Amino acid sequence: MATHRELGHSGLHIAPLVLGGNVFGWTADEKTSFAVLDAFVAGGGNAIDTADVYSAWIPGHEGGGQSETVLGKWLAQRGRRDDVLLFTKVGMELGPDKKGLSKAYIKRAVEDSLRRLQTDYIDLYQSHKDDESLPVTEPLEAYAELLQEGKIRAIGASNFSPQRLQAALDAAQNGLPRYESLQPEYNLYDHATFEQDDLAIVQASGMGVIPYFGLAAGFLTGKYRTAADLQKSPRGAGIGKKYLNDKGLAILKALDAVADRHSATQAQVALAWLMQAPGITAPIASGTSPGQVQELVEAMDLQLTTADVAELQVPEPAKAA
């Protein structure tokens, strides 16, 4: 069983892999989502990340809430609330008057999330993206009240500039609660921005880090290698545009070599690299079948060598003169 890690100074201790709930009620129907959640907990996982906006981008899903609703039904039917940590988020647009991080909106949105999740508290409540129209202190004031009321246990941030993140941490020294976690985009393909902008901040402050897109929208599983492969998924077109290039193919080649040495899959190696990366608490990854989830949780027991890590650090391709 993988050793649990504390998320920042929150008092929340999590396995080194967080289950992403973005697929619940979207590419995984309710029955499949329940099976995925069962497999994750059975495999030693204990933290599940969702958001109020999942999956508002789908026609007919306007207003979001589908993922939280499915998760809430699973918690109620399985009686697992005390066995898992619930992470959700606020701030993305759900409607004309339902977005941002104003104090009034956060206080309203948390009630909607609690109702959908069928619980009376959220373990980690995250600002899904910064609201730069407001001072960094406004959401912290809302969170202070929710912490006092016992409706949330800790707070986190996602999609903040390093300047605004540091400002929020500084504000927390004046009696306001502090963000205990950061949720950035970070994976073997996209790692430079986090390392340059955020790593020093999180290490100096002791924040936890739970990166999203740990498998680069599925590209790092190795199943997209040619233009024809892109037909395998609704996400294929976007994957091809961003990742199917010289750099991406070089990373897949390195993943193949390391996976072969460890008798592991490319996805397991990509996640193990994240779990061992400086500053990272636990990557987020999602699955749409129990088999996929079993593969993902096994990454928690994969130890990469220094040579493996060096091989996976594919240099940026040289720019043409």
From TrEMBL:
One of its GO terms (molecular function) is oxidoreductase activity. The lineage of its organism: Bacteria, Pseudomonadati, Bacteroidota, Cytophagia, Cytophagales. The keyword tRNA-binding does not apply. This is Aldo/keto reductase. GO terms for cellular component: cytosol. The keyword Oxidoreductase applies. Signal peptide: none annotated. It holds the Pfam family Aldo_ket_red. It comes from Hymenobacter ginkgonis. Keywords: Oxidoreductase. Residues 16-312 form the NADP-dependent oxidoreductase domain.
